[in-house]
Amino acid sequence: MMPFKIDILWTDAVFFVLLASIFILIFFQRKQMKHARWTQVFKNKVGMSSAVVLFFYLCIAFLDSLHFRPELSQRLPNQETLYATQVESVLDLILSPLDVQMETTYAAPFATTSFAEEPHLVQGQVVYDFEPLRYTAEHIPPDTPTLTEISHIMRAALPMTGLLTAVTLVVIFFLVTLGSPTRIKALFIRIIRPAPRGVCWRTFMITWVLMLFLCTTLYYLSRHYHIFGTDKIGQDVFYQAVKSIRTGVMIGTLTTLVMLPFALLMGTLAGYFRGVIDDVIQYTYTTLSSIPSILLIAASVLILEVFMNQHAQWFASTAARADARLFALCVILGLTSWTSLCRLIRAETLKLRELDYVLAAQALGVRNLMIILKHIFPNLLHIILITIVLDFSGLVLAEAVLSYIGVGVDPSMQSFGNMINSARLELAREPTVWWPLAAAFIFMFVLVLAANLFADTVRDALDPRKAG
Amino acid sequence: MWAYIIRRILYAIPILIGVNLLTFLLFFVVNTPQDMAVVHLGDRYVTQEAIDRWIVTNGYDKPTFYNPKAQGIDKISDTLFYQQSMRLFTFNFGTSDTGREIGHDISERMWPSLALAIPSLLLGLGLNVILALLMVLFRGTQIDTWGVTICVALMSISGLFFIITGQYVLAKLFKWVPISGYESGLSAIKFLALPVLVSVIAGIGSGVRWYRTLFLEEINKDYVRTARAKGLSDIAILFKHVLKNALIPILTGVVVLIPSLFLGSLLLESFFAIPGLGSYTIDAIRAQDFAIVRSMVFLGSVLYILGLLLTDISYTLVDPRVRLN
Question: What is the ipTM of this complex?
Answer without folding.
Answer: 0.84
